[in-house]
Structures are given as C-alpha cells and as structure tokens.
Design brief:
Largest sheet: none
Distance between the termini: 42 Å
Radius of gyration: 21 Å
Shape: elongated
Number of helices: 2
Number of domains: 2
Strand content: under 5%
Structural class: mainly alpha
Order of helices and strands: HH
Length: 80
C-alpha cells in the first residue's frame, strides 16, 4: 500500500483536530448551560452582582471543591 503524501496526511490531521475542537466547544456549551440553569435556580440571576464579582465567587467555589475532587480521583486510582 502506498503511503499518502504529506499534504494529505497533514490535511487529515487538521480535520481531526478541528473535529476535536468542535467536540470540546460542544461539551463546554453543555456545561455552561447546566451551570447557568443551576445559577438561575439558586437565585443568582436576581442578585445585582457584576461579572467580576460573580466570576470570583465561581472561582472560590471551584477552588473549594477542586481539592475534594482530586482526593476522590486519587482514592479511585489507589483502588485500581
């Protein structure tokens, strides 16, 4: 079987990368919709918070729970 020319291999690889980027964008959109729904349900939409304040609060939530998530991941790895 003849090897594909470099240009064809590069084009195929770029197409795969584009498909993966699109998949990541879709995953991000789904996550954003989920978080948005939860934020509205929790009443955050009714608060007069600017974007910077809200962003800092989300970052604080993420940092508080990142340690717990890492501990769970490590426990799962040790169990294997």
């Amino acid at each position: 079987m003849a090897r594909q020319p470099l240009a064809e291999r590069r084009a195929a690889t770029r197409a795969k990368i584009a498909a993966l980027k699109a998949e990541i964008a879709k995953m991000d959109a789904i996550a954003a919709e989920r978080i948005g729904r939860l934020a509205v349900r929790a009443g955050l939409a009714d608060l007069a918070l600017d974007d910077d304040t809200l962003s800092r609060e989300f970052e604080a939530i993420a940092s508080r729970h990142a340690g717990a998530e890492n501990a769970i991941d490590q426990a799962d790895d040790q169990a294997k």
